[in-house]
Amino acid sequence: MSALDGSIVNISLPAIGSYFNITITTVEWVVLSYLIIISSLLLTFGRLGDLYGHKKIYIIGFAIFTVGSLFCALSSSIILLVVFRVLQAVGAGMLMSMGPAIITLYAPPGRRGRYLGIIGISVSIALSTGPVLGGFLTTVFGWQSIFLINIPIGIMAFIWAIKVLPAAKNAEKYPFDFKGAIILFLALTFIIFPISFIDRLEINNPIMIGSFVLGVGLSLLFVFAELNTKHPLFEFSLFKSRVFLMGNISLLLNFIAQFTVSLIIPFYLIEFRNFSAAMAGLILIASPIVALVITPLAGYLTDHYETRFISSAGMVLITSGLFLLGLLNENSNIAYIVLYLAITGLGIGMFQTPNNYAIMSSVDPNRSGTASSMLATMRNLGMVFGASLSGSLFSYRQIYLTKIYTLKTVTVTDLNNMVFTGAMRFTFTVGAIMACAAIIASLVMGSGKRGVKIP
Q1: What structural domains and CATH numbers belong to the chain?
Q2: Is the full-model pTM beyond 0.90?
Q3: How does the average pLDDT of the chain come out, rounded?
Q4: Backbone angle region of 305, left / alpha / beta, with phi > 0 → left and psi within -120 to 50 → alpha
Q5: Most buried of 39, 198, 223, 303, CB within 10 angstroms?
Q6: Where are the alpha helices (DSSP H) in 74-205?
C-alpha cells in the first residue's frame, strides 16, 4: 500500500503542481510531508508494536491510511492536501514498522531471506503498477483518483489482516517513551526544513542556519535522553554491532541515491520531453519491473551466501545507473532511458533483500520490532533527504546555470535545454556519489550472518 501510494503520487506531481499553480519545491511537500511524518514516527510505532502487539498496530494503520486517502482526494488546496498526507502517513508508518518484524518473528531462520524477498517482490509489484496506473488515472480522471484507488484496496487489506495475522504473544509491558518520540519528531522536522528550501533561501540565511542547528541540537538531546531512560524509544546499544550500524548507513545512502530518480525523472519525461503522464509511467516501469524479476534471486542468494557482497554488487549497479541517467538530454532515445532505469532497478533488487536480512539477523529476536522500525526509519529518512536534496539541488543548479548561460548568445530553446539537462546531470552526479559511499559502507559491514544452508 505504501509503495503503491508513493509511486502513484510521484508520477502525478507535475499535474498536482499545475492544478494548484505551484513550483516543484512546493509540490514536493506532497511527498516530503508524507515521508517526514513516517520517518519521525516509525520508531514510535515499532515500540508500540512491541508493547501492544504487532497485529493491532498493523490493522489500525490500514484504517488510518484508507481514511487519509479519502481526505487527500477531497482536498481543495495544497495546504489541505499536505495536511491529509500527514494523516495518511501516520497509517503508513504503522504498516511499514511492523512488516519485517512479523516476518522475523514467525519465519524459520533458513527461510527469512526468501520471505523478506517476498516483501521486496510486493514492493516491486506496487512500484511497477504505480507509475502506469498513476499515469493512466491522472490522464483520464485527474490526480484525485490516485488517492481514491487506495480506498477499496485498504478496506480489503484491513479485513484480510484481521483474519490471517497471528495474535500478539508475549508483548512487553513497559511504559512508552513519549518524551523521546516528541524530541525525535521535532529534530527531524528542523533538520529537513532548511535542506528542502535551500534553493529559495541563501545557505547563510539565519533561518536556514538556526533551523539546522536546532535540529542537530535536538538530535543530540534525543540521544542523551534515550541513553538515560530506563525504557527508551530506541536502544542505541544496537549500534555496537558493526553489521547493524553499517547496514543501516548503507540503506540510508541507498535511498538518498535512488530517490533522486523518483523525483527528477518524472519532470524530465513530462515537462522537459513532453511525454504524457501515461507514457511516462510506461517508461518508469522499467526499474521496478527489473527489481521484481531479480528480487527472488537475491532472496535465494541471501539464504546461501555472504550478504555484503550481494548488496555491494547491487550498489555498484545503482551507481552506474545514476551516472548514465545524468547523460540524458533533449534528444535521448527512449530505449536508452529504459535501459538506464533498468540498470538502476537491477541494483535495487540486488541490494535490499541481503542488506535487510543482515540488519534483522544482527539483533536478538526480542528486539526484532526495534530493528524493523529502525530499518524502516533509515529507508524513509533516505527518501526524505533524497527528495529534499534532489529537488533543492536541481532548482538551485537551474538558477545558477540560467545566470551563466544568459550571458551567452543562445536561443531560448537552447537555454532551456542546457539549463534543465545541466541541473539534472548535477543532481544525478550527487546521487551517484551517495551510492558510491553506500558501496563502501556495505563492504565494511562485515560478514554478518550468512544464510542457513537448505536443500
Answers
A1: 2-166+178-443 (1.20.1250.20)
A2: no
A3: 82
A4: beta
A5: 39
A6: 78-106, 112-141, 145-148, 150-164, 178-196
